[in-house]
Amino acid sequence: MAAYRQKGSAGYLFSIVLVAVLGGLLFGYDTAVISGAEKGLQTFFKDASDFSYTDALHGFTTSSALIGCIIGAFLSGWMASRLGRKKSLFIAGILFFLSALGSYCPEFLIFPKGVASKGLLVAFNGYRILGGIGVGLASALCPMYIAEVSPANKRGTLVSWNQFAIIFGQLVVYFVNYLIISSHANDPAVVEWTNRVGWRLMFVSECVPAGLFTLLILLVPETPRYLALNGQDDKALTVLSNINGESKAREILAEIKATAVEKTEKLFTYGWMVIFIGCMLSVFQQIIGINAVLYFAPRIFESMGVSNNMLFTVIMGVINISFTLVAVFTVEKLGRKPLLITGSLGMALGALGVAVSNVVTLPALVPVVSIMLYSACFMFSWGPICWVYISELFPNTIRSQATAIAVAFQWIFNFIVSSTFVPMYNMQLGSMGESFGHFFAYALYGVICLIAALFVWRLVPETKGKTLEQMNALWKERA
After folding, report:
1. Mean pLDDT across the chain, nearest whole number?
2. How many CB atoms lie within 10 A of CB 361?
3. Is the CB of residue 288 less than 8 Å from the CB of residue 453?
């Protein structure tokens, strides 16, 4: 450890970031597990005798975890300031674990096993909301943790790894769902088995990464910026020295202490524009429509005439994770803004390609490639770069509060997009029938992508290479 303090250790930094990145994996796992389970859930609850399980109720059940995400995001600022980043992430891990168990067996000690009812639906959604709170906490705190332990010249890359973990978590759960379904592929009653048991196994599979994350988070240090902001300078210097070397660590600690007034600084000390830009980055990340594709991927591919929709969902997951690596390896070279603008334009092209395919007779390959392009462009732009911006855009003095608000906006609009997608996608108009809804949904997302590119070009500052402490000066000049 003494050697670390003299020169710093990339291995030490990598190990603690890797643990935080597991929180991102759980974020992706928890939000995407519903894609494989939603049809089985729908069939299961449609058999209830004491209420009618409508499409609206199914839309709510599919999206209920997002209510928890909103709650968790709002709580994250208070928890990060009062409890610290590390303890708050530990609580998130416990919530992930309990949610996975509860979603697997929502009947636990209260309802008869396997009998759908109104009460059971309430219990199931309660467990999903509990997991959503964990996601909301992790979505705000994991990038914050990584940003606060990372050197300025590595911060964008390391925070981008969190997005890689989110997409990897989605890919893992797509693959797990595929294996669960495939395990009974030769069973004539595979559909009945999926509706009765398969969806439960999908949810409980999350216990493995959730348990691992909860244990490992106990082994990482608290962030040096939180320690310094709370008068624990010696501990902060130790962590900074282990990462940067003692000489550089003393410089960083002095910069942190110069801005260490988090408990007294007001939210709008640096003007309203920094809050507005942070919130709008979160809003655009959602209203460009990506989560409608990720949550309902199997259903979308089925509507395109793809026979093995779960397999194509896995393929899309592989493409997504590959393009996330583009951001990881270019964000510190190209900067944040170029990636966001390029990704927005590519997404617009993909979304409009899908839209046109629904009103003009084109080969089935065209909409499939277009949806892949749309998703891939998100993965090297809005997916990781929005989180990079949220983790580094705000000054130290208001970071906990501002991050909580920005992430809450993200989950609010995630819920709006996810809960409105199916009704919008299924809209019918005259002779066009459902083709109108398919066209309208993707045309709308395509136009929003173009507006997002304009927003970034005109208003969002480039933060590449700036320390977190330099953000104070940047926004003071703009205020």
Report:
1. 84
2. 5
3. no
Say what angle helices 382-392 and 152-182 make with each other, to 10 degrees.
140
Do the beta carbons of residue 162 and residue 21 sit within 8 Å?
yes
The CA-CA-CA angle for residues 382, 301, 346, to 5°, reads: 30
Question: Which ranges of 105-206 does DSSP label H, i.e. alpha helix?
Answer: 118-149, 152-182, 190-193, 199-204
Per DSSP, the residues of 16-39 read HHHHHHHHHHHHHHHHHHHHHHHH
- Per residue in 9-53, pLDDT tens? 888 899 999 999 999 898 888 878 887 788 788 888 988 888 899
Residue 103 — very low, low, confident or very high, per pLDDT cuts 50/70/90? very high
Alpha helical stretches, state H, 272-398: 273-287, 290-295, 297-303, 309-334, 336-357, 365-379, 382-392
Residue (of 72, 79, 80) closest to 134 by Cα position: 72
Return the SS3 of 351: helix
> Residue holding tokens 């205020």?
479
Cα separation, 64 vs 414, whole angstroms: 11
Measured at the CA of 138, the angle between CA 343 and CA 469, to 5 degrees, comes to 70
Q: Which of 453, 132, 415, 136 is nearest to 295 (CA)?
A: 415
What is the per-residue pLDDT for 399?
79
The full length of the chain comes to 479
DSSP conformational letter for 404: H
The torsion angles phi and psi of 429, rounded to 5 degrees, stand at -145, 110
* Alpha-carbon torsion, ordered 171, 172, 176, 182, to 10 deg: 40
